[in-house]
Hints:
The complex is a heterodimer.
Chain A: H1 2-15, E1 26-29, E2 32-45, E3 49-63, E4 68-76, E5 80-83, E6 88-91, E7 96-105, E8 111-118, H2 141-144, E9 149-158, E10 165-172, E11 186-197, E12 202-213, E13 217-229, E14 234-247, E15 252-266, E16 271-282, E17 287-298, E18 304-313, E19 320-328
Antiparallel strand pairs in A: 1-2, 2-3, 2-19, 3-4, 3-5, 4-7, 5-6, 7-8, 8-9, 9-10, 10-11, 11-12, 12-13, 13-14, 14-15, 15-16, 16-17, 17-18, 18-19
Chain B: H1 2-17, E1 22-26, H2 36-43, E2 49-50, E3 53-54, E4 56-60, H3 65-75, H4 79-91, E5 98-100, H5 103-112, E6 116-120, E7 129-134
Parallel strand pairs in B: 4-5, 4-6
Antiparallel strand pairs in B: 1-6, 1-7, 2-3
Amino acid sequence: MKFYFILFYIFTLLANAGSYELGHGVKLHEKLRIGGYFSTDYEVSETRRRARLDDVAFLAYGNLTSNLSYLVEIEAAPFFQRDFRAGTQEYDRHFHRERLYFDYQYSEMANFRVGKQITPIGYWNLEPINVLRETSSNPLLSSKMFPKFLTGLDIYGYIPWFDSVTYHIFMQNNKDIDEDYINIKNEHFFGLSLENEVSMDFQYGGSFGEFITEDRKRTQFAQLNAKYELSNNLSIQSEVALNHVDDHATTVKGYKFAGYFQSLYRISSKHALVGRYEYFNDDATDISDHIGIFGYSYRPIYPVSLKAEYQWNSDEKLNKFITSFSVLF
Amino acid sequence: MRYIFTILMILSVQLSAAKYGVVVTSHKSKVESPTLRQLKDIFLMKRHYIGDTKVLPINMLLASDLRQKFEKIVLKINREKLNNYWIKQHFQGISPPVTQASARSVKLFIKNVEGAIGYLPLSLVDDDMRVLYEF
């Protein structure tokens, strides 16, 4: 079934090629716009030399009524990968339900999103795909500190009397719609996040909440984020998160911390240099890591991204070079 | 000499005060006096309500001079940055506001569609419309 869906997709894109603009999807109807993205990368480290067709994803969305809209996204990742050093290769052509939700707009202060959605925390998590980022790699904060997805309810809107402040109250009390496709499997997840968009150039916010993982570990988290465009060329962004983990099985309690600071220098609209420093510490596993990244990003047009970066790790064996190519269509 | 200087001063003051257009809605709308921030959010499709009133932004065509002025003065964002913004919104499942081919069709749309908000040249504004912002 999914195969025919994808086939339909490709034919539709080709049929609309005349009016099509890359990165904006194809509007087939008031109630249906389709699009997607893919990314490839090549990684060289002491332990592996790997090429991947990492993400292959298709999305469809639209307005069903003036208040009700939907979004569906299916994704296969990694679609194909080959490790030249180990001589192995893998395929995963199973498309997972990455997002599947309905939005009901009720008022300026209260709107509702129901279904599987990106957890509304921070910046990195909300723009998780390769083509929208300026580095091929993700900071550890984005995968280790909270579930990337929520299968539940998010109530969101503007806070009265604070024109620029938005809130999200989100909750989940069930398994993920597609359990094989989430970074932290959980059955209970709730939180509150706030964001103050002072201007297009300066935003900050934070969140806190709790989740219980499949192996009965209760984690309380608190997170802060800020980004600032200092000039047309220079922008900075940072996020930090602290977890308190309570393992019911072993009665062991501990803390986990992750944070990153990233700066981006635009040489021109197409070329940019990026630097990032990350720190990660986990009491339970006794892992403490400092990571430095320096990279180059080239966008011939915005929805097409070519990137290369070198990553220095406090454990030198993990040092790596990554290059990637990604497209949003 | 003093006479010429005075004329130049008056002209320059008039030019600096010159308005390109106005953001308007139907006089039947409950939207009275949104802040500049709210207007900006509406046209960036971040905000769909003013209080309990549903709003629907209408854009003019990309090539329109008035649209370019509106983007520069009200949205305070350049074309390239705005295009990148809409590409990011595509991933979030959000499309740009609908467009109308001419100022007259924007005016008709605002008169006929409840909650519609658009921008027009001053010369097209009549008693059926409520001016929300001048730019």
